[in-house]
């Protein structure tokens, strides 16, 4: 049964009290098994809703609906211009319901309400508007030919860009609505149809988004939403023979499973995976700005950001000052419910994540890292941990090598450019990076040498629908956002005519 947590805003009560179903072929339906799972408020550890537990049978129904919508439904016949209008409308509806969506996100994920409103919801709306514009701008090329074995032959050759087909999209819990937008935006712009699986920890905003997508007039079967667990619903998407492409955001470990599962029908795969991003402070930086930036790079969203600046490299002469500065900020961060206006850091998303981060903190201490700020969990009922700054961190420690996905930064000193680049690139990951310096050449040298998909110079965590995002090395395959994201959802067909 559903106990209503005290923190639930009145405006959400009616939405939460209705049964949370699956969206298949334009209808909200129960799972074939009839099963549900509990959804928790991470600030109170109370059950706030129950969501339908979809599994392989439901994924199969959703794929059939998506297939029918792709192979001949109104979506497949719609002009690109009209497709763009509907996608734009989704963006508008998100804005119109911004406060409600932000509340839902704070309730389900724990993040501060102001962050949910200004970042998650605003970026999600913007993503749909940005991608709406691309719908009418997907073009092939004309290509001059010079066929060696057909001398004098005259040809007219061109490429067609076609939607890849039915796509499966599996998303995480750290930015539930925004990750849905990153995935759905380009898939809709290119004319694909979709089976989306939100994370089991945070299914609520995707369900509400599904309602808004219907309200916008996106035809039935174009967007299907299956809530459920990774090992069942997620795995069924990754392995389904009738899905042409799978896009996944989550852990590197699960990303590798996706590749294996996708091999059956060789569906195309894009992956946005973990990170252990280096954030570098040189002694010629504006130190106040760099210290505030380094704190924000790790504590934003409770550190549950794949591109978080979790390895902080500080030039030797200023190491103690910068560590002290970031620690001072950490100690003063107000940790609490995301609905409290003074809260700067909310709870972690789940009990499991809370326990995982706590295990890393213990491992760091056991291995000799010193917590200058924080270092432990905060007593419940919610899933809170202290913002933590570790010094005396070394490259062999698990807190430096592995993705913690929590508010824990490991600070390490460096001497000069040469050893910095070696240290920064000494990671299995390569998602993002940051550098703080007033020296433009140093910044550019770093930008060229670092093996990471994003480089932030004198800033961190700047995201824009137009700016591609994705990983080197084990941080992933392909890019999201920007026009680069469209390629993930398009096939190129070459057409050659003899004149
Ligand atoms: P985390 O460990 O931080 O929860 P995951 O990578 O496990 O991150 O989860 C990201 C998404 O992948 C979620 O939607 C989850 O349900 C899904 N998932 C987890 N395991 C699998 C799997 N074996 N196959 C497909 N999807 C999965």
Automatic annotation (TrEMBL):
Q: What is its EC number?
A: 1.2.1.39
Lineage: superkingdom: Bacteria
- What sequence ranges are listed for the domain Aldehyde dehydrogenase? 28-495
**Residues of the active site:** 272
Q: Where are the transmembrane segments?
A: none
- Enumerate the InterPro entries for this protein: Ald_DH/histidinol_DH, Ald_DH_C, Ald_DH_CS_CYS, Ald_DH_CS_GLU, Ald_DH_N, Aldehyde_DH_dom
> Which Pfam families does this chain map to?
Aldedh (PF00171)
**Can you provide one Gene Ontology molecular function annotated for this UniProt record?**
phenylacetaldehyde dehydrogenase (NAD+) activity
Keywords in alphabetical order, please: NAD, Oxidoreductase
- Which residues fall in a coiled-coil region? none
Name the PANTHER family for this protein: ALDEHYDE DEHYDROGENASE-RELATED (PTHR11699)
Family to which the UniProt record says this protein belongs: Belongs to the aldehyde dehydrogenase family.
Q: What is this protein called?
A: Phenylacetaldehyde dehydrogenase
């Amino acid at each position: 049964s559903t106990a209503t947590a005290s923190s639930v805003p009145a405006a959400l009560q009616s939405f939460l009290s209705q049964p949370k179903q699956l969206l298949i072929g334009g209808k909200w339906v129960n799972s074939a098994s009839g099963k549900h799972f509990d959804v928790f408020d991470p600030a109170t550890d109370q059950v706030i809703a129950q969501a339908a537990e979809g599994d392989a049978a439901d994924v199969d129904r959703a794929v059939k609906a998506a297939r029918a919508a792709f192979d001949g439904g109104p979506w497949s016949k719609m002009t690109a211009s009209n497709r763009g209008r509907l996608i734009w409308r989704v963006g508008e509806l998100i804005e119109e319901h911004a406060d409600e969506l932000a509340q839902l996100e704070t309730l389900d994920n724990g993040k501060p309400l102001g962050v949910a409103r200004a970042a998650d919801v605003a970026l999600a709306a913007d993503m749909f508007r940005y991608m709406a514009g691309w719908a009418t701008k997907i073009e092939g090329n004309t290509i001059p030919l010079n066929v060696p074995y057909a001398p004098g032959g005259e040809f007219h050759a061109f490429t067609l860009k076609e939607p890849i087909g039915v796509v499966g999209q599996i998303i995480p819990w750290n930015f539930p609505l925004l990750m849905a937008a990153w995935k759905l935006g380009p898939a809709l712009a290119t004319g694909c149809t979709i089976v989306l699986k939100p994370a089991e920890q945070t299914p609520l905003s995707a369900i509400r988004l599904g309602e808004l997508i219907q309200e916008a007039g996106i035809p039935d079967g174009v967007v299907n939403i299956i809530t459920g667990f990774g090992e069942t619903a997620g795995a069924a998407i990754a392995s389904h023979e009738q899905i042409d492409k799978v896009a996944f955001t989550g852990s590197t470990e699960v990303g590798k499973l996706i590749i294996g599962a996708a091999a059956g029908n060789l569906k195309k795969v894009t992956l946005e995976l973990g990170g252990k991003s280096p954030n570098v402070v040189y002694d010629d930086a504006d130190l106040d700005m760099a210290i505030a930036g380094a704190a924000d790079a790790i504590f934003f969203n409770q550190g549950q950001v794949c591109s978080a600046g979790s390895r902080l490299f500080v030039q030797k002469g200023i190491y103690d000052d910068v560590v002290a500065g970031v620690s001072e900020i950490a100690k003063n961060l107000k940790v609490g419910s995301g609905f409290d206006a003074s809260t700067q850091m909310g709870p972690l998303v789940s009990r499991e994540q809370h326990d995982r981060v706590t295990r890393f903190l213990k491992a760091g201490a056991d291995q000799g890292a010193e917590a200058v700020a924080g270092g432990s969990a905060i007593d419940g009922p919610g899933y809170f941990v202290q913002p933590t700054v570790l010094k005396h961190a070394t490259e062999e420690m698990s807190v430096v090598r592995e993705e913690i996905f929590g508010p824990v930064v490991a600070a390490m000193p460096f001497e000069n450019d040469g050893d910095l680049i070696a240290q920064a690139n000494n990671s299995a990951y390569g998602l993002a990076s940051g550098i703080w310096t007033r020296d433009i050449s140093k910044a550019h040298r770093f930008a060229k040498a670092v093996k990471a998909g994003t480089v932030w110079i004198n800033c961190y965590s700047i995201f824009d629908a137009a700016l591609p995002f994705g990983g080197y090395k084990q941080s992933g395959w392909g890019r999201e956002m920007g026009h680069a994201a469209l390629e993930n959802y398009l096939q190129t067909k070459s057409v050659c005519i003899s004149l």
